[in-house]
Specification:
With 286 residues, the chain is mainly α. It has helices spanning 2-19, 25-31, 35-43, 47-54, 58-65, 67-94, 96-110, 123-140, 152-167, 173-179, 183-192, 195-222, 224-242, 256-282, and strands spanning 244-246, 249-250. The chain has a two-stranded antiparallel sheet with strand order 1-2. A hairpin with a 2-residue loop joins strand 1 and strand 2. The model has no long low-confidence stretch (mean pLDDT 85).
């Protein structure tokens, strides 16, 4: 039971992080030491799993999937998203620098600890960094899309891309939704429980997840050192993404209150990463 509680708390943290544009739930999974387990578990939604279900071997299929882990983790994420979406709207509108600084401090400090801290730095590590630079550079050069009306096919496509970003540490699914002009509508649909809108978005997310998760798993199996460098620099470079305002521009505090917000946010971010590391160590066997 203690292990499941730890997993549920990790799900809450991941869900909370994913609401914030520029912060990735995948990053939180990596910091909390469950990223690879999550990748392996989701990748097992395959032909063998479906075959077990068709044969009526529900328990065997569930164990093969690591179902308890997935169910508890996803439950925590869903609860965090639905319970905190209104709070996020309030904080983003009224205390944006506090929120951005909090996650900037958290992400930067996470680079100093395992599993993000590299075991060794070599050529393969820096090869991974090149791919990170390309992705972040592309995102920085991308201007925000403003939509008057949302096409359902576009919504599905947005979910497909956003979940790919969710899986990548350092790239936020909510930030991709923001770039695509879908983020405000998604938050509104969550608060108003618009199940049609959320259902189409969810369908796109599931499709993207099942495709992209296998790519990441293969990369882990065959190019671990490259993927380590790739993830490390994605997290590092995602910090300026949190502050992105326009094409190749960032927003910084412009008042005394803004600097106070930023200072408090940074301090809380450092405290949170120390707490998360403690949780990761306490539950390293979950």
């Amino acid at each position: 039971m203690k292990k499941l509680i730890f997993i549920f708390v990790k799900g809450l943290v991941m869900g909370f992080a994913e609401i914030i544009p520029g912060v990735s739930g995948g990053t939180m999974a990596l910091i909390l030491g469950i990223y690879e387990r999550l990748i392996i578990s989701i990748s097992k939604v395959n032909f063998h799993f479906l075959k077990q279900l068709v044969k009526g071997k529900i328990l065997e299929a569930w164990k093969y999937l690591d179902g308890n882990f997935l169910l508890v983790l996803i439950s925590g994420m869903i609860i965090a998203v639905f319970s905190l979406s209104s709070l996020m709207i309030y904080l983003l509108e009224n205390f944006p620098f506090f929120l951005k600084s909090l996650f900037s401090g958290l992400l930067f400090c996470s680079l100093l600890y395992k599993p993000l801290k590299p075991y060794s730095i070599n050529l393969k590590f820096f090869v991974g960094s090149i791919f990170s630079l390309i992705i972040v550079g592309f995102i920085f050069s991308f201007s925000l899309v403003v939509l008057d009306e949302i096409n359902l096919i576009y919504l599905f496509f947005g979910g497909f891309l956003a979940v790919c970003a969710f899986i990548l540490p350092g790239i936020s699914g909510s930030f991709i939704l923001l770039l695509l002009g879908l983020y405000p509508a998604v938050l509104l649909s969550i608060s108003e429980l618009d199940f049609l809108f959320l259902g189409i978005l969810f369908a796109g997310c599931i499709s993207g997840l099942l495709v992209f998760i296998r790519i990441i798993k293969k990369a882990y199996e065959n190019y671990r050192e490259v993927i380590t460098g790739f993830f490390y620099f994605l997290v590092l470079l995602s910090i300026p993404l949190i502050w992105k305002e326009g094409v190749w521009s960032i927003s910084l505090p412009y008042s005394y209150q803004g600097y106070i917000e930023s200072g408090l946010g940074l301090m809380l971010g450092v405290i949170l990463i120390l707490f998360l590391q403690k949780v990761a160590v306490s539950a390293q066997d979950t």
